Amino acid sequence: MKKTKLTFIADTHHYSRKLGDNGPAYERRSSTDQKCLAETGDIIDKAFEIIADSDTDALMIVGDLSNDGERASHEEMIEKLYKLKQKKPVYVTLATHDWCCDNNARRYDGDSVFHDVDTVKHTELREMYYDFGPRDAKAEFITHLGTSSYKIEFPNDIILLSLIDDQDGEGASGFTPDHLEWITNQIKEETEKGKLVIGMEHHLLYQHISPLFSGHGLCCGKHEMYIEKFCEAGMKFVFVGHSHMQRIDRYVSENGNTLYEINVGSLVGYPAPIVNMTVTDKQIKIDTEHLKEFMYNGEILSSEYLKAHATRLITKTLGLARHGRKEEFVKTLIEFGIGRDTAEKLRPMFSFLERFLNSTSVYTLGTVINFASFGKTFNKSDLIQLKDKKIIDIVNESFLSLLDGALTKHEEGTAYYNVVTSFVHIPNKLLKALRIKHKKANILCDELDNMIKEIVTGGAIDNNHLTLDKN
Ligand SMILES: [Fe+2]
Ligand SMILES: [Fe+2]
What we know:
Elements: E1 3-9, H1 24-31, H2 40-52, E2 58-62, H3 71-85, E3 90-93, E4 107-109, E5 112-114, H4 122-128, E6 139-142, E7 148-154, E8 158-163, H5 177-192, E9 196-201, H6 211-214, H7 223-233, E10 237-240, E11 247-252, E12 258-263, E13 273-280, E14 283-290, E15 293-296, E16 299-302, H8 303-323, H9 326-335, H10 340-359, H11 362-372, H12 380-385, H13 391-404, H14 415-424, H15 426-433, H16 439-457, E17 465-469
Parallel strand pairs: 1-2, 2-3, 8-9, 9-10, 10-12
Antiparallel strand pairs: 1-13, 4-5, 6-7, 7-8, 11-12, 13-14, 14-17, 15-16
Helix pairs in contact: 2-3, 5-7, 8-10, 8-13, 9-10, 10-13, 14-16
Bound molecules: fe (ii) ion (2 copies).
């Protein structure tokens, strides 16, 4: 039986430690990011070691290879790619963080942040990564930025289209009209020959979980038009990155074609996914494995470290509001892009929130709400089942579930599902009880209801495993 196995990772965001890996300014930056910074080199090395020793036929990287386009980060990343290429072919799709489109590359020294970092221009990328795509391309499209979309042929009648979707020429991510035409023509041509067409691009084509998360910024500007065109033309799978969330969604076009979008989470943060697609004569299987451990500064770190790093984003920021110095809290919020004045005003609220989330149990809060709502909000036996949980536990677990595509599923009807969704439903219930008709508030409350259900259950499709018949 013929078999082709392709491996996908995304958002490696390699950060050169030459840009600073200790001190207060670095710590602030590191603690306000879900993904790692100084640890990226060691995480990538370990993942590449696993991939090199595996039975995969090729590795694909779905964009944001470097932290923020820093030349030092790119140079180290390219060295790692050449080393892996001795064992496996590697194909990359570059993206906005590879040429620092926000002009915000930084280095850290002591308590200071410096912006004098040498970055790579978009016009340099094709040449720098020529051996990881364009060199083997059967067809190529050079964009107005000088970047490259290209086509690779794999055995077993598989075609990979690596599509760079950084700018559509109208201020959003996506494709210019001539680029879009090239892509749809490639898909049609290969589909007519009976090939399986797989796309990979950095930004999302399908708005998943909720527009509150995957709305503007995560998806391509004209994503609805693109996905319809690609699906109609015959593309069957598209691998995307950017959101740092693991997710699989199924799109059905107007003519009934289906296209699966596999959103691959970031390798350098929890849950560090490595997604394998295996194509045989009969089946197509998608299986996600996770980096279990890596060595950093002589210490073996596990996925628990990545989990703690991700949730530190919430816990450390709130903790600083209550227990830290005011200036440290303000500087930390500035790292999130929040202005100094707003940060100062937010401190009392964050401090209250920290105390509330950490000291209140689900059972206590539920009982109080039940008392005020004449026992109509929560089922008492559900609350008893969650009696050991604090509110902060639910917040952290929901965040991790968002990132890992609900590796721990809480199906409809379970105590966890009932309590969490009923709690998020309270604003909606209040609006209805008070007969408040405010279009934006009503839409927001409905969206919150949908979003939390998607987060705790993972949605209709298993986000980490999928098996389909080939035909
Ligand atoms: Fe990213
Ligand atoms: Fe991105």
